[in-house]
């Protein structure tokens, strides 16, 4: 039998502690914030071994991260707002309920338009994960490209302040509670 993980409260919200199953509401969970936006990783002190999942709220006019490719599949669902997908040196507009599939080794990054852009991100994880941050002329226009290709996240993000833990900010997520069938 799999035991339930304990949820621990802090100034930034609830976080699971240890192994096990749990239920956590994104509005009550601990969030992180950096210059790109805010996100809820749903993980606690134990990283999910097979799957990464988060909800991100990308700041207006900002990318969600640096242009990159991973050795694993990633998939994304736009929950709210409008923005663009920069993928393989192409730009594609996105709006709520657009789904983006990135097979392994697909170069990509998201950029919010003039309002917050909310996406659900899901990615496979393997022991030999590798992320490559290539130089991208297109992504440079959005301050989302490294100046020299690297496989080091530390190098790719060296010019930006580190993320901080923060509580959920009211209004970041759409309020679908009023929707009835």
Write up this protein.
This protein has a domain at 48-166: Jelly Rolls. 4% of the residues lie in helices and 38% in strands. It contains 2 helices and 14 strands. It has helices at 137-140, 153-156; strands at 6-10, 13-17, 31-33, 37-40, 51-58, 69-70, 74-80, 82-87, 90-95, 99-102, 108-112, 117-124, 131-132, 164-166. The protein is globular. The model has no long low-confidence stretch (mean pLDDT 95).
Can you lay out the helices and strands and say which pair or pack?
Layout: E1 6-10, E2 13-17, E3 31-33, E4 37-40, E5 51-58, E6 69-70, E7 74-80, E8 82-87, E9 90-95, E10 99-102, E11 108-112, E12 117-124, E13 131-132, H1 137-140, H2 153-156, E14 164-166
CATH superfamily of one domain: Jelly Rolls
Contiguous helical run count: 2
* Residue fraction in strands: 35-45%
The beta-strand count equals 14
CATH class of one domain: Mainly Beta
Gross geometry: globular
Which regions are unreliable across 5 or more consecutive residues at pLDDT < 50?
none
Q: State the CATH architecture of one domain.
A: Sandwich
- How far from one another are the termini? 36 Å
Do you know the CATH topology of one domain?
Jelly Rolls
Order of helices and strands: EEEEEEEEEEEEEHHE
Structural class: mainly beta
What's the average pLDDT? Answer: 95
Strand order of the largest sheet: 10-7-12-5-4-3-14
Bin the helical content. Answer: under 10%
Task: Report the radius of gyration as a whole number of Å.
Answer: 17 Å
Summarize the main sheet. Answer: 7 strands, antiparallel
């Amino acid at each position: 039998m799999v035991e339930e993980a304990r949820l621990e409260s802090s100034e930034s919200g609830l976080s699971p502690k240890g192994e096990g199953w749990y239920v956590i509401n994104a509005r009550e969970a601990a969030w992180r914030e950096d210059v790109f936006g805010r996100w809820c990783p749903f993980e606690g002190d134990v990283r999910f071994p097979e799957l990464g999942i988060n909800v991100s709220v990308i700041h207006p006019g900002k990318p969600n991260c640096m242009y990159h490719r991973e050795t694993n599949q990633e998939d994304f669902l736009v929950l709210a707002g409008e923005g663009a997908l920069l993928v393989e040196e192409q730009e594609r507009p996105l709006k709520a309920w657009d789904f983006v599939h990135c097979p392994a080794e697909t170069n990509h990054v998201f950029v919010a338009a003039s309002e917050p852009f909310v996406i659900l991100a899901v990615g496979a994880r393997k022991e030999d994960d590798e992320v490559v941050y290539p130089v991208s002329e297109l992504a440079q226009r959005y301050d989302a490209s490294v100046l020299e290709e690297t496989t080091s996240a530390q190098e790719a993000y060296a010019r930006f302040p580190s993320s901080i833990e923060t509580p959920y900010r009211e209004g970041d997520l759409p309020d679908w509670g009023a929707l009835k069938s």
